[in-house]
């Protein structure tokens, strides 16, 4: 084990030379498409349509006959059955953000978790190690027929600490096989943590892995590692560069504010590589850019790739091109006509991942957001649930941009200790530009997850206001659900009252009825709906008369247990003229990933029921609106296990 | 001859006073950023290390106080199990909760604060406060909680710690 003392001088360390001024290139990027006009036109015409309906239809207030009937499953109109109006149990906390004060309900008696309940929580087809703690996904890549995933791992406990690089491989991003650790904290420069990093695959096939090491005197530095043997498809052994670290905090940057190097992209002249590393100056999140010809020596470039005041420390920056016209992904170095760049940061302050679309000027080395009001860190999120430290890679095998995200537990730590593990990774998602809205990306579970689908059933129903319809699925813990909703035009009435201020986190969930919502699906519910998780749409007239659609996941009654988070997640979702409202929901025991409008908005939830588990877990359709009837169609597949297990190395 | 010596002595004392005032200002400023100024202040001032601590070290002092109270609670729970067998379930829940605080939350917070990834320290202290609430809640409808004061102390200290840690994010 090398234990050289640090050869660097932290104070005077890296001086840099500015890039020699080259010929000024006129911007080749076209004037950014003006999505706002399109959206405004759509909203205006929706408003006109609504006004027309208003004028034509009789305004007599509808009588709500909530009749107690046994819900049947025939394909008929459903008269309002048992309404979804169970009041929230006493003491359930409802809050917009992760509050410190969670009013805790004691439940019937002291609540004790059984082994059955706890072991049910392990997922069947999401990536997770056999035990202990995991966090950020690291260095994802495709090499010689195998997808690789590395990840932050604690080999000692189900809580963060003692971080090493776990490693797993898969043929198809779904069936994973565990491998030995790729890197452990065995050098002075990473003895306090082998932290997050990214892979760059060079044109000649070499793989350069840059990662953050926490040194023996707790300074954050960037280090280089590479495979010991590139011909090994499993990339079992990794070598740390003998002259690590390759980057240390530059002057003016805090020793604890310098981490998570990205995948590199080619500089404009094609002879150097650039990476970006997040940091902060006071409360302004910034992105430093370094340039290198060989991945050994680095120059800090002048200025920042981008910065946004008030956003705090930028962790896990991701920076990649996206095609405006094609459905395939792009190599990280791509740029030019018909290409925008996504800038993404994980905000330390609020533990969420934010992204924005914009334009990258490689000569000035500046990225500019399309919409400064939705700048990175203050605008769109990848996921409106529990989702952090995400990272993409270019899958050269199938020409896709693939996104990984870390999903941590939302139960009390005592439960993680009891069950002996914490955290899962999301199902990998493809990322493409949303050509219809022009203002966001679409995320969608990789198609390989569909190989787990087995039996399916389809069901259609017209849901009258106040109806809850059970779907005949036994054992609803591993499901792929696709549901589509259309408001019945005949009963679509809108009053002049605006339904202002609806916001999923403060809404109180699916129990609170509006004229045009909520309606959607209910997952991980027991047949008596004592525990249930509604995933729903809520249509509201906003303050300026325009119609807004909200997409929410309601955990308020997801469990009777007091020691799990119960929040309503969600946000507005753009819905274009003529679109039905669609939900795809991947249910996998204690994780539910839900996608609205083909991936325009995504919510990942962690759910910990006590009775709605195993054979008792059910699915429902519901419509808790007071006015609108909803035509619903749903298709559900059972999902098999991905059988994630150790790689049979002894059979090699 | 004596004059420079006296001058030096006066300057030295003065400098010492100024340093002390500045450190107290850091403690005060830090405590004002939490939701419980008094508890923060009294806990920090009770520890002599706070005089020369930076913000991360101040947080560590509070984390240590959380640890101490939790240890007290756990030994109290053992005693209570003997005296009140009818409270076994609730006490068992409290035991699980506080063992997690000692085994996971506190070490995580200490590790994160020393390594400069305060986010995980925040997770740890937010959870510690939650565990105290869970313990207290486990007595609801069963009996009057014999641990109310301790639970409240642990909760409030953990909240203060989380408040200090937020300054480091």
UniProtKB/TrEMBL annotation, chain A:
| Major site of localization recorded for this protein | other
Domain spans labelled Glycosyl hydrolase family 32 N-terminal: 126-445
Outline the extent of the Beta-fructofuranosidase N-terminal domain. Answer: 15-118
Q: Does the keyword Membrane apply?
A: yes
Q: Name one GO biological process term.
A: carbohydrate metabolic process
Entries under CDD domains matching the protein? GH32_Fruct1-like
PANTHER family named in the record: BETA-FRUCTOFURANOSIDASE, INSOLUBLE ISOENZYME CWINV1-RELATED
Q: Which organism is it from?
A: Sesamum indicum (Oriental sesame)
Keyword terms of this UniProt record? Glycoprotein, Glycosidase, Hydrolase, Membrane, Transmembrane, Transmembrane helix, Vacuole
SMART domains associated with the record? Glyco_32 (SM00640)
According to its UniProt record, this protein's enzyme class is hydrolase
According to its record, what are the GO cellular component terms? Answer: vacuolar lumen
Q: How does it assemble?
A: May be present in two forms, a 70 kDa monomer and a heterodimer of the 30 kDa and 38 kDa subunits. The ratio of the levels of the two forms within cells appears to be regulated developmentally.
* Location of the protein in the cell: Vacuole lumen
InterPro entries xref list:
Beta-fructofuranosidase_N, ConA-like_dom_sf, Fructan_Metab_Enzymes, Glyco_hydro_32, Glyco_hydro_32_AS, Glyco_hydro_32_C, Glyco_hydro_32_N, Glyco_hydro_beta-prop_sf
The segments labelled Disordered in the record are 1-32
Q: What EC number(s) does its UniProt record assign?
A: 3.2.1.26
What's the name of the protein? Answer: beta-fructofuranosidase
From TrEMBL, chain B:
Q: Which SUPFAM superfamilies match?
A: Plant invertase/pectin methylesterase inhibitor (SSF101148)
Q: Which GO terms describe its molecular function?
A: enzyme inhibitor activity
Segments forming domain Pectinesterase inhibitor: 22-164
Keywords noted in UniProt:
Disulfide bond, Signal
Which family does the UniProt entry place this protein in? Belongs to the PMEI family.
Q: Which NCBIfam families match?
A: PME_inhib
Name the PANTHER family on file. OS02G0537100 PROTEIN (PTHR35357), PECTINESTERASE INHIBITOR 12 (PTHR35357:SF17)
Q: What is this protein called?
A: Cell wall / vacuolar inhibitor of fructosidase 1
């Amino acid at each position: 084990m090398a234990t050289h003392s640090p050869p660097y001088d932290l104070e005077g360390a890296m001086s840099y030379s500015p890039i020699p001024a080259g010929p000024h290139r006129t911007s080749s990027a076209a004037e950014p498409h003006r999505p706002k006009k399109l959206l405004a036109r759509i909203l205006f015409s929706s408003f006109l349509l609504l006004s027309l309906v208003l004028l034509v239809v009789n305004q007599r207030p509808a009588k709500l006959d909530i009749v107690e009937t046994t819900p049947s499953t025939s394909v008929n109109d459903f008269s309002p059955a048992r309404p979804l109006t169970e009041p929230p149990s006493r003491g359930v906390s409802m809050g917009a953000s992760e509050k410190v004060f969670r009013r805790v309900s004691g439940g019937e008696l002291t609540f004790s978790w059984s082994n059955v309940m706890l072991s049910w929580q392990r997922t069947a087809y999401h990536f997770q190690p056999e035990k202990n703690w995991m966090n950020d996904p690291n260095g994802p890549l495709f090499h010689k027929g195998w997808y690789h995933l590395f990840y932050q791992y604690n080999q000692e406990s189900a809580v963060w600490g003692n971080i090493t690089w776990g490693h797993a491989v898969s043929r198809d991003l779904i069936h994973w096989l565990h491998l030995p650790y790729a890197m452990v904290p065995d050098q002075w420069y990473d003895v306090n943590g082998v932290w997050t990093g990214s892979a760059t695959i060079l044109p000649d096939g070499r793989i350069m892995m840059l990662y953050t090491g926490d040194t023996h005197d707790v300074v954050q530095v960037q280090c280089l590692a590479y495979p010991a043997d590139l011909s090994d498809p499993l990339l079992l052994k990794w070598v740390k560069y003998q002259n690590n670290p390759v980057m240390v905090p530059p002057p003016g940057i805090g020793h604890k504010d310098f981490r998570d190097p990205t995948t590199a992209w080619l500089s404009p002249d094609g002879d150097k590589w650039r990476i970006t590393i997040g940091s902060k100056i006071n409360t302004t999140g910034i992105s430093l850019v370094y340039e290198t010809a060989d991945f050994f020596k680095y120059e800090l470039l002048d200025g920042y790739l981008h910065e946004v005041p008030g956003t705090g420390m930028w962790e896990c920056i991701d920076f990649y091109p996206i095609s405006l016209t094609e459905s395939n992904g792009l190599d990280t170095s791509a740029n030019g006509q018909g290409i925008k760049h996504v800038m993404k940061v994980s905000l330390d302050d609020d533990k969420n991942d934010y992204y924005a679309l914009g334009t990258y000027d490689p000569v000035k080395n500046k990225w500019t957001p399309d919409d400064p009001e939705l700048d990175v860190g203050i605008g769109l999120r990848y996921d409106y649930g529990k989702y952090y430290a995400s990272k993409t890679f270019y899958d050269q095998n199938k020409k896709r941009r693939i996104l990984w995200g870390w999903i941590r537990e939302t139960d009390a730590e005592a439960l993680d200790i009891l069950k002996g593990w914490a955290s899962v990774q999301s199902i990998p998602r493809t990322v493409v530009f949303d050509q219809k809205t022009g203002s966001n990306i679409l995320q969608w579970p990789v198609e390989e997850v569909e190989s787990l689908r087995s039996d399916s059933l389809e069901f259609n129903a017209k849901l009258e206001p106040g109806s809850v319809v059970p779907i005949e699925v036994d054992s609803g813990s591993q499901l792929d659900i696709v549901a589509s909703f259309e408001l019945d035009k005949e009963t679509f009435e809108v009053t002049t009252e605006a339904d202002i201020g609806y916001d999923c986190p403060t809404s109180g969930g699916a129990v609170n009825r509006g004229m045009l919502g909520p309606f959607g699906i209910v997952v991980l519910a027991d047949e008596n709906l004592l525990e249930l998780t509604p995933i729903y749409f809520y249509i509201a007239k906003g303050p300026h008369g325009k119609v807004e659609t909200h997409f929410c996941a309601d955990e308020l009654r997801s469990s009777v247990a007091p020691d799990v988070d119960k929040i309503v997640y969600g946000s507005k979702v753009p819905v274009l003229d003529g679109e039905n409202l669609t939900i795809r929901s991947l249910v996998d025991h204690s994780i539910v990933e839900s996608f609205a409008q083909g991936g325009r908005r995504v919510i990942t939830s962690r759910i910990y029921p006590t009775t709605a588990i195993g054979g008792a877990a059910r699915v429902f359709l519901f419509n808790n609106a007071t006015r609108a009837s909803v035509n619903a169609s749903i298709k559900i597949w059972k999902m098999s296990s991905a059988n994630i297990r150790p790689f049979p190395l002894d059979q090699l | 001859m004596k004059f420079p010596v006296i001058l030096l002595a006066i300057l030295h004392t003065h400098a010492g006073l100024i340093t002390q005032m500045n450190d107290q200002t850091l403690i005060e400023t830090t405590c004002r950023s939490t939701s419980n100024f008094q508890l923060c202040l009294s806990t920090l001032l009770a520890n002599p290390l706070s005089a020369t601590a930076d913000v991360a070290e101040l947080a560590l002092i509070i984390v240590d106080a959380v640890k101490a109270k939790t240890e007290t609670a756990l030994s109290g729970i053992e005693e209570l199990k003997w005296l009140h067998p009818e409270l076994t379930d609730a006490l068992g829940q409290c035991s699980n909760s506080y063992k997690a605080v000692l085994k996971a939350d506190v070490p995580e917070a200490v590790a994160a604060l020393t390594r400069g990834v305060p986010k995980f320290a925040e997770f740890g202290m937010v959870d510690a406060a939650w565990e105290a609430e869970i313990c207290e809640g486990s007595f609801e409808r069963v009996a009057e909680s014999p641990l109310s004061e301790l639970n409240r102390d642990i909760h409030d200290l953990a909240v203060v710690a989380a408040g200090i840690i937020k300054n480091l994010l």
